[in-house]
Every structure is written in structure tokens, then in C-alpha cells.
Description:
The protein contains eleven helices and 17 strands. It is an alpha/beta fold. It has one domain. It has an eleven-stranded parallel beta sheet. A two-stranded parallel sheet has the order 3-5. It has a two-stranded parallel ribbon with strand order 6-8. The chain is globular.
Amino acid sequence: MRCRWHQHVQEAMISQFYDFLIRHPHLVRYIRIAYFLDKTLVKCVVNCPQLPPLLRLCTSISSFGLEITNGMTPWLTLSYDLQGAILEMISRPYFTSLRFSGLDEIPMDTLARCRGLRCLDIEDSVGFPDSNIESRVHGFPLVQLREIIIKDSQPFLGSLLNAQGVLDLSKIETLTFSMEFEYSVQDCWNLIHTCAKGLKSLKFIAKSPSYVDHFLLSEYPPTLQPLITLSPLVHLQSLSFSIFLVDTAGDMEPDEFLKPLCLLLRTSVSKIQEVSISLCLDSFEIFGNDEERQWMASETDADGAAVNFFSELDTTLSDTRLLPRLALVELKIFILDLDSDDEEDYNTDSDTDGWDSDDNLRRWEKHEFLVPDGVVRNSKKMLGETQRRLGDGLRVTLLDIP
């Protein structure tokens, strides 16, 4: 349940839906997923008096999410009624997925109640690393998590490492991290190595160039920092990097952003089957929109070969000795702003003044219809060795042109 308008509309949505279910109780058992987004300054969703009884009414919920976007909301500031309804819901044996975003100071002992929890998704939140947690949850079985997603929540990451008397991390199959400046590299990789026994999929989300410093030492040639290695992950099958570089690239060369991925792949065991890369950029220039022009065509490596944006990545992915089981490489490109000099040129509203002018129309045709094919085509050219190795196993997609 979400609403982008007035707070009273959000409140009415919850109240009206609750009244609807009271009148149609036969529908209640079909509600398995409940997700609430509170975008209001006064927290009208979490403070809505009908929310706790709604959660208690829907006894078949197996997946619950609460996202608060305007400022942190400490757990203890929630009403006792709402706290109780959430704790009652997550304690049910068939409850499997929990997401909190913007909910601060989450008591870690609440997780001990989640007997069936398999996926934990925490964003913009903090946990309590309480040293007495094990004594308070004595008698509860260990929570057998299968997936953990942590974004912008470094303190919660530390809390997880201190809560192994509550959580069994040995069966984790998927880990997702958002790599921001406040992250402790040691905590991040300690958790990765703690989950090494069963980990099959590892995903990194980087929203600023500072993530490079989390992987690389400041020396030349660049090397990975201590602890950063995939070698203990003997069952790892999938590695994913999502890199957001919008107006933040600074003086770094474009290929530097892929350097951590290339070096990390070279520490991997031979079971990796899939590599996924998502790039969010503010320019299409590095891919070249002209068929006759290649990116950085004037540069060459020591052997005289042309160097491009994906050169090192191409060499890594096409190495059959390094990645003998590699079967799929997915490259997803999202170009946020095609013309950094004049953002107004890309207003997609057909009612905008000047839309039908020749200048605007030519500019729109150029970017709307030529850029997508050019980006995909030239990206595959730059990953030529990988394409020769994988064929259809190399998939390049331009996600969207705003």
C-alpha cells in the first residue's frame, strides 16, 4: 500500500481496505504478501490505528515489508499495538520474508521469533548488538536464513555478526550488499566468509565511486585489499555487480570502475556459471553512438591492441582456464541522462512546448532510436572475445532511456 499524494489518502487506504476485509472475510486467507510504504512526514501509515488490526486479521501473511522514507523511525517509537502485531505476525511458522527500510534501532532479539524466516532485507536501518541477546532468547531454535540483503545499514551488519546465537548463517545461499562509504570492509567480508559454506550467489550494489576504495589498495598496479577473495566460496555460482555512476565519476577513468570486478573474478573458484553487471551511467559516450568510432580508439595496450571500456573485463570473462563453467554473462545498461549539457532536451512529455520543432525532434530521434542499438551493438563489440566464447550466452540490454 503506497500513496504519493496527501497523507489522509494513505490513512484512508488502510482503513478502507481493513473495512473491506471485515465485510469479505473469505478473502483474508489469500493475502500472503503485505508491503507498506510511508512517505509522509507525520508517519501516517505507521501511526494509522487500523494497521495493527489489519496485520492481525491477515493471518496468512508470509512476506511483510515496511518502508519509511522520510527520516529514521526508531522501533521503540512505534505504538505498542503495532510492535505487538508485527511480532505476532513474524512469529508464525510459515512467515518467511521480512523487509524493513528506514526503521531504526531494530532489536536483534526480534529475529529470534522468526522461526520460519528465510529472507531478511534491511535498508537504512540499525540493529542493537546487545551482548545479552543469547540469554534473552534461550530456548528459541536458530533462525535458518537463506538470503540476506543489507543496504546502507552498516551498524546492522555488525549486529548480524554478533547475533550468531540467534541466526544460523551457515545455510545462507544469497548475499546482497550495498557498498557505501560507511561500510566496514572487514565486517562485510567477515560475513561473506562466515556464509562461505553454502553461498551460491553474491551481489554488490555500488552507488558511488568510493566503492572502488573498498576493494583496491592505493598502489600500482592495483590489488585487492586483504580479506577480499572469493576462494573460500567453493559453491559460488553467480556474481553480480550493480554500479551507479551518475554525476559522480570525477577524475577516474571509466574502466577503473570495473577493475574490482575483474580482480575479484580472478580470485574465484572454477564453479562460477553466471556473471551479471548492471551499469547506471549519465552518458552514452563511452559506448560510442557512431558505428565508425570506437571508444578510446587511440589508446593501445602493450601489445598494440585497441583498448576500450570493457577490455580487461573481456579478457577475464573469456579466460576458459579461469572460469571454465561460465555459461551466462548479462550486461544491463541504464543511461540516466543522455545530454548532460541540456537536460531539458530530453523531456518526454509530448505536450511540452517545442516538441514538434525540427531541432528537438532530430535530437529526440537521435537518442531515442539510434542510441539503444548503438549501445548494445558496440558493447558486444567491446566484449568480442566473450561473445565468441559464449555466443547467445552474452546478453546485453539497454534498460531505459528516460
